[in-house]
Amino acid sequence: MSQTPVSTDLGASTSDRLASMAHETIERVKPKANRAELQVRDAAAKTADSVKQLQEQAVDAAGEGLSKARSYMTANPLTTAGIAFAAGALLGALIRR
């Protein structure tokens, strides 16, 4: 049984060459990837700011609506009671079905 020696030089040089190519590619792409990351982070920050502003506007609008509803209910207690009765009757009729 004779075994043929396998040349490890060919495998090693191919591995070294591929590793070198990979490192060169990474170094070439790194600046573009860094710029893209900064752009994505900037866009995310702007989006977060916009969402926060919209949330504040929604909370303010809800507060104003609630304040107006309370004012109406205080000024018109009989109308409010009538609306509540009608809504309860309608809801009760729908639930029974």
Fraction in helix: over 70%
Global structural class:
mainly alpha
Distance between the termini: 90 Å
Give helix and strand order, one letter per element, not per position.
HH
Radius of gyration: 36 Å
What percent of residues are in strands?
under 5%
| Quantity of strands, as a count | 0
Give a written overview of the molecule.
The protein is mostly helical and 97 residues long. The chain has one domain (12-96). It contains two helices and no strands. The longest helix has 68 residues, at 8-75. The protein is elongated, with a radius of gyration of 36 Å. The N and C termini lie far apart (90 Å).
Considering the chains and any ligands shown, give keywords for the structure.
97 residues, mainly alpha
Short description:
The chain has two helices and no strands. It is mainly alpha-helical and 97 residues long.
